[in-house]
Structures are given as structure tokens and as C-alpha cells.
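Bench notes, bay 3.
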Amino acid sequence: MKKVLAELITIGDEILYGQTLDTNAHWMSGELDGIGVKVIRRTTCGDQEEEILQAFREAAQRAQIILITGGLGPTSDDLTKPCLAKYFDSEIVMNKQALEELEQYMSSRGRELNKLTRLQAALPDKCEVVSNERGTACGMWFNNLGKVFVAMPGVPHEMKFMMKAKVLPRIKQEFDLPIIYHKIVRLAGIGESWLAEKIENWENTLPENVKLAYLPTYGDLKLRLTSIGSNLNEQKKEVDLLVQSLLPLVQEYVYGFDDDSLEMVIGRLLKEKNHKLALAESCTGGYVAHRITSIPGSSDYFNGALVPYQNDLKIHELGVKEETIVQFGAVSEETVAEMAMNIKRKFNADYGLASSGIAGPGGGTDDKPVGLIWIACAFGEKVKTRKLNLTKDRDVNIKLTSVALLTLLHQRLVAKD
């Protein structure tokens, strides 16, 4: 089945200046994927006529569907409407349907329709009106030589309503859409290149209709299998069989699928085992506790956390031996092991996690450079430790360490011994 391709064009200087975040394109991409339309490019244009027209011309060469947001207001800096009129060799005239809907909208809110607002109903004569029941700027639908252009307001709640109520249903009606099915395998504790090497032979046997993508984030990695076809049940069966053949190669790194997060999976495992968790976070500063408590119901398995950032708190509040810190330092395997065991005991938990390191950008030495982190997981009377050599970036180090800690705990929770 032939792919149906879309391009998204966002118009507005405020996006390029970094003053406004374009959340529309992200949301639209997900909605289009859900109906079988593949987004191949997202473009942002400033409020310059020639740039906008060039974006239209280029998009029409690549995609069948071009969705445009922004620039539909009645003021002089809103250029989407005049640019569409020029592109489609169209005159801007007062549209009867748009004017009636605009009058009804303003009347329902007890507001007068002034001269400037009335201009919202002046549209290119070659477009069809896409009604806007949430605002004053109606959308415009153009269909020319098999290419569909749709212009919508940039205000997110207006655009989303218009997309769901008007645009997506019509796209489904006018195009023969394939089914796009995604399956995501979530892994941690392995880098992208190492994973690629491990599964190279498996990847080489994938059928043509199934594509594989590696999606790394902070210490976390997603493998996305995408199947394009016309029978969802058959696609799911095929992809599920491929995943089953993949798992023996990478099982030790897999923690979940699709929308699972490490903290979500860990929460489920702790609840199943009726076990409790406590944290002693130094260099992560409570970030792991934030992730754990972001899951509803985490009070069932999370006892609490300490953030003993200073050494005297490690000693007096957490019970780390002073001689341990004097001899080995706060950033050491010995210290972090005591932190993990002591927080487990102090908070009457089954598992204790601890971190201590030099997050940066300052504070490093030749012996202990920025990015040196020790983490530990205590369970029973045992402690598992791990040394991390990370980056010079503080924020990155905190996030990577948090993933490493959660991965260490997950490995313990699924261990057979």
C-alpha cells in the first residue's frame, strides 16, 4: 500500500526567536501517525512572504498533505492567508459562511464584531471553510492536483479541536490510508552501538515492511519496530513474533515495552513482591525520588529519601562511619555502599539506593574528576555497587546517574537468586 505523506509548516517569528515553544507540530505528528499518515518533515517559517511561499512550494513536492499553523490573525504581521491566496492564484473575498459563523461566535459571547475582527471572515475564494468553534480564525482547506493544504490557527486548543473534529476525519475520507503500527522495546544499561552489534544478524532478517529505529535518551534506549500494512491484526502478530525472537539476545537489558518507564516497571515489581524502597541521594539531589513518586500509588512501596549532601549529614543523619569518609572520601565505593545499607535499615525498607559523585562543573580533582559517580543498591545483607564515569555537564550527569540507579534496582528485582 502506498504511503500517504504529510509535511507540517509552522509560521511565526516568535517560534524562531525562541519566545514560543511549538507544541502543535509534536501533537499533530502523533495524531497523523495514528491514522496512517507519515509526517516526513516539520518546517518553521518566520513572518516573511517569500520564505512562506518557498516552504509551500517545497512541501508540495514532497508530500500529499500540507498542514499549516499560525499566522491567521487579522493584523499586518499575519501573512498565512495572503500567502495562500497568492500561492493558489486566489482573490481574498468576504466568505458568507465564515462571516455567519464569526457573527454567531461573537454574539454567543456577548461581544461586538469590530472592523478588524470582521476581516477574519475574508478568505481566498478557492478555499473551503474549516469551521472554528473555539475561536475567531477559521481554517482553510485547499485541494489542488491531489495536494491538500490545510491552514489552522496556531492557538493549540483551537487547532486541536479543528484537527479532531474536522481535519482528521476528512483526511481519512479522502485518502486510502495504510495502517502504521509501532512496537517499542525499552532497554537500559547498554549503549546504542553495543546493542546494534548484538542484534545485527536479527536486524538483517527483518521483513521489508518492518523498519527498526534506535531511539537513545539519557541512559535509556528504545527500539521501535514500525510495520506499515493494511491488516492490523496480522501486523501485530508479525511484530510480536519478531520481538519474541529478539528478546533472547537482549533480555538482560529489557525492562519494558511501549509506554513503560523504569520507575513504572519498578513500582509494579515492588508491589508484586510487597517490598519497600528507600533512597539516599547525594549527587542526584532527590531526582530519583522525584521519578519514583511521579507514579500514582508509589506510597505503597516507597518509604522515603534523604539527601545528605554534606558529609556531616552522611555521618550524623545517615550513619556513615567518619573513618570511611576520611579514608576513602565521600565519592567512593565504600561510602556509597554504607549509604545504601544504612538508608535501607533507617527507613525499614527492603532495598536501599544511594548515589555520591562529582556532578560538576567544578569540584573535580585529578584522582576524582567531574563525572565520577558511585552508586549502590542494598538488599538483604548484600550491596551491589557500580562506578560511573560520565560527562562534564551537571544536568546530564544527574539524569544519567538516576537512570543507572533505577537500572541497578531493576536488575536486582528481576534477578533469579
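Next record in the batch:
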Amino acid sequence: MKSRSTSLRFLAAILSILLAPLCGCVQLVPPDYETSVKTGGEIEATFLARGQYEVERAEIDAPAPMDKYSIYFPSVLKDSDQKFPVVVYLNGTGMKASYYPALFNHLASWGFVVLGNEDPGTGTGKSADQTLGFILDENEREGSVFYGKIDRDAIGIYGHSQGGAGVFNAITANERSSLYKTAVSLSPASEPGAARMKYPYDSSKVAIPILILAGDGDLFETKVVIPLEELNKTYDRIASPKAVARKKGQRHAQTFYAADGYVTAWFMARLQNDEQAAKAFEGESPEIISNPLYRDQRVDLEARR
């Protein structure tokens, strides 16, 4: 009976997320989140603030269920010989890239080409794989604004909720999995929950550095989506360099932007070799460990053999 009740709550919660955009009852990314989200460390604050680049956006038609690709990129890319790192984003259940302009704008302002699509069911990682394939094709297509501008050695991925689970599948079980250099999973559906929802993943197959962040601000997050016990089980299965933390007081519908300071720092450290950003996770006193706004922090950047 307990198992059936838990499953029903899980399905009901997922349904509420699916219907939320239609009824306007979910706040996605506040336009001012770069200045309104509370931070507990200097590095977190630095990388939550806007970066140095002006940003442009392109939208290109894509096959269903993606419908269109949204690409945010530094404006200087068009007239530069520089190659830029790429980050692909996976939507949560029922969500679309068009709901997250502030989030993508922020990361692009730090010198990334950021890609999303309109796929409302990203758990298998397939639409992320197709989206990555699209930008790599553009990198090879003469006449494209992205021609010769993509750094194939600096590709990352992140996602929230179902998309957080999809991150694991994107980097382990798809055609272009081996191209990713690092990943961030935000409030991922637990491995048992993802299996129930027909997009199972196996965290033990992760072979690249990964950051996992969640919140503790509502029962949906802590009891349905990713209970702490399941979060730790997933973390313990990963043999590659890794870090995990939960931001205090953050609800499930907030975690994908409330922890964005450390998301940006992780990508800056891993894809742009930024030494200040790396100090959030490396050294004798990683900032994320002592940050009073986080709990259940663990950092293990030595890969297990």
C-alpha cells in the first residue's frame, strides 16, 4: 500500500508540473534572479552575476518533439576567430527552452554557446543528442554563423528534474555521449523514479566529471523527486570526479536557477579552465563545502579506478 501511495503521489506531482505552464502557476526563471538569489560565498556570487559578453539569440526549426532549437551565444562570436565552448540544456517535464531565456542568457554571457529545444520529455537524452548533433553540423556548414566557432573539446550538458535524469542518459547511452567533457544534473529524478517513468538511467556508467545539485525546500523535491537517500546512492555509484550539494530552502521549481552560481562556476572551471571558479570545488577548502546556504555537500574529484 505504501509503495502504491508513493507512486500515485509521484504521478500526481508530475501531472501538476505538466499542467503548470498552462495555468501560469509555476514561476520559472525570474528576470532579476542574477541579483535577487541569495549567495553564501564569494565565488558563488561572482558567477551568479552576469558575465562580460553581450548575448544574441537564434531560433531554428527542429523536428518534433523539439520543434525549434534556441541558441544563445556571445555577440562577438560572429566576428571572432575564437572557438567557443558549448553547453546543452535538457528541460524538465512539460517544460520548454522558451521558458528559460534568463537562464540561457546568463550562461551565454560567460562565453558559452547555450542550446535548448522545446522537447517536454527529455529523460532519454535523445533530444539532447540531436541538439548537439545540430550545432556540430552548423560548425561544419559554410555560411552558418557558427561555422568553425564551436570548440569540440569543450562540450557540457545540464538539465533539471526529468532533464536532470536525461543528463545521465545523454552522457552514457546516446550516439554522441563520448563528446561531453562535463555535466551538471539539477534535482534529477531518482533512478527508481526515472525507471518508473520509462527513462531509466545508470549512474555507474558516468565517465566524466559531474556536479549534482538539489534543494530541500519542499516535499516534492525531498520525498518524490530525489530523496536524500537516493541522491547519495546515485552519487556513490559514480566513479568519475564528482561533487554534490543541496541548497537550503530551495523548492523543486527553483533549483535550476537558485544554484546557478555554482553551475556557471563548474562549467567555467571545466570548460574554460577558470582558476577562480575551480576553487569552488577544489583545493583544501572548496567554497561549496563551507557555504552556509548549502548542506549535505560532498566533493570527490579523484576518479576511482
